[in-house]
Amino acid sequence: MIIYDMEDVPISKRYQDLAEMTLNQTLDYLKFDYEVDVSFTTTNNTVIQEINQEYRDIDKATDVLSFPLIDWPSPCDYDFLEEGISLYMNPENNHVLLGDIVLSMDKVKDQAEAYGHSEEREYVFLIVHSLLHLFGYDHMTETDEKEMIRLQKEILQEIDYK
Description:
This protein has 162 residues and is α/β, with parallel strands linked by helices. The chain is built from six helices and four strands, in the order βαβαβαβααα. The chain has a four-stranded mixed β-sheet, with helices on both faces.
């Protein structure tokens, strides 16, 4: 389940549905069998720049920020999660708390135009990218980056947003 915070930049029902579909398809692809909660904030370049400065000490706007609540020893290490799953459960609904996604809708528009594809495709891509971060994937090394790119392509293909 996505918990929306659209105080800065509200999104349409269509975009909410796209976010839910993307979450569910990504969970299916990663074979994650639990219900999840993800906090999802849509914002603008000004606010995401402030957040990026505060949490990453980078004073520029970025497209999406991910704040995982699970410190995976390796990406999608479900055995690790099983051992202490109660630590990561929302006590109100027993969903696994994956983390927070903060997405700049300004960047969605700018990058879609720059890459020559639709805003919907860019939006879906950024959500997939961020969800992979919530599952412990990263792109700090060339090997990790290649793996993340491969997964992103495969997931986007699965949900027909190549």
